[in-house]
Amino acid sequence: MTAHGRAKVVPLQRDGRDDHSGGADAEGRAPVVPLPTADTAEEPRSFDDLVDFVRRRLRGDFEVDEFGFDPELTETVLFPLLRPLYERWFRVTTIGVDNIPDTGSALLVSNHSGVLPLDAVMTAFAVHEEHPERRFLRMLGADLVFDTPVLGSLARRTGQTLACHPDAERLLRDGQLVGVWPEGFKGIGKPFSARYKLQRFGRGGFVTAALRTSAPIVPCAIVGAEEIYPKIGDIRPLARLLRLPYFPVTPFFPLLGPLGTVPLPTKWTIEFGEPIRTDGYAADAHDDQMLVLSLTDQVRESIQTMLYRRLARRRGIFSG
Fold first, then answer.
1. Of 272, 65, 276, which is closest to residue 157 (Cα–Cα)?
2. Which residue, among 121, 113, 134, 118, has the nearest Cα to 189 in the 3D structure?
3. Residue 273: which residues within 8 A CB-CB, separation 6 or more?
4. 8-state DSSP, 276
5. Which residue in 61, 131, 151, 173 could disulfide with 1, CB within 3.0 to 4.6 Å?
6. CA 48 to chain CA mean position, Å
7. pLDDT in tens, 89-142
8. Cβ atoms 187, 113 nearer than 8 A
């Protein structure tokens, strides 16, 4: 328990490169305590476990890292809420999860769609639940997420951080699995007629981060999220008034009010492609803009190819 009832902040750890493994160092700093990890043989929590969890929360007896990530809260509260959506509503199938490394850094790059970014949340859940090491995906999010009351705090607590070079590189250097959706609002806000057509990936900032840290890039393709909210229009004056990137019109929203926000139960497939290595380039390769753009195009084409291949095999939107 902390002295003032606040959570303890635990520095990030680098795989195999812990700077403090014993007691306090020469400068009197406390030893680094690794964050708790999931047990691969996890059992349902008992009522007593949940009571203990709540008590420790009220006392502030829990740990977060320097970005605010709280793994225990994520596993105990968020993931159980997501499980029915993942298993019963979207019935997600994962392919190629073994392409995600068991340890060390990697940058997962995926397509983005669906009006609301449920695809990112489902991908994070898939990585944790399907990967043998039950890794956490540290997602990079837009400013809007962290500027929104409550949502911003929840995003931090569940492992997300701002989509910027310093945060991405710090996480990668410390051996984390990082997720990025470079289409951004152009992807999730595109019209239904443009479904599964990747939007621009910008100037390749994610590739620069991977090159600086020698982290492999894992392409990811999500099929099924494009149809959960078929966007057929955009009320731009209302979007400007609310300071949103768009205000979507779907066949059910805003016509049906809150009921129109229920996503359609489409069948999802999440495929993780073969990693693209970046550790073979020169130390200053990140300054080579032609190389950065070339790798960006390679990642984009890899994702687009996986999307087309999965779509060709799909029998139907709701049957998969």
1. 65
2. 113
3. 96, 99, 218, 219, 220, 221, 302, 303, 306
4. B
5. 61
6. 31
7. 999 999 999 999 999 999 999 999 999 999 999 999 999 999 999 999 999 999
8. yes
